[in-house]
Design a protein that fits this description.
This is Lysine efflux permease. Helices cover 78% and strands 0% of the residues. It is built from eight helices and no strands. The chain is globular and about 55 Å long.
Length: 200
Amino acid sequence: MLAFLPGLLTGLSLIIAIGAQNAFVIRQGLTKKHVLLVVAICALSDALLIFLGVGGLGALIQGLPWLLEIIRWFGVVYLGWFGIKSLRSAFKTQSLDASGTQSGSATKVVTAVLGFTFLNPHVYLDTVILLGSIGNQFDDDKWWFATGAAVGSVLWFSAIGFGAKAASVFMSKPVFWKVLDLIIAAVMFSIAILLAFYKF
């Protein structure tokens, strides 16, 4: 427990900030389409990266700065594209259906969530390098730390995904979807700009 609880709390503290991935999970929950799939992919991806970080991948990535640069610019392009897409959908009447008809096929949803997860260098900095470094301070108990951090991801993504799904019945007005898409566009553009100028 001395390693599990710090892992849980550290994992939650890093993941709770609303970023591109969280914004997408919330929107997907509100559309009530493929919510379990999205939550599962996010939680499993985080767990994989956390365990790889604790296992030593963080040190390897730090030794390959060019890899983070490649991921950075893919992320900038991808987030910019999704921001434009969200901005356009905010002004299209047909995109405001709360029943989720505009949420996309399972394949598109999976592609989007994998993009938000693995094309953001901050994901590697937080999960692989930072959590990996902290976890290794616990020596033999480092895997309990990793388990705690992974459980934190499961709890958070389940809360925002299924919480948004439950709340969607109160958010059926078209104006809500316009505002939500504008907020998501702003989040995507902000993170894309941050990635472009961030000093890794």
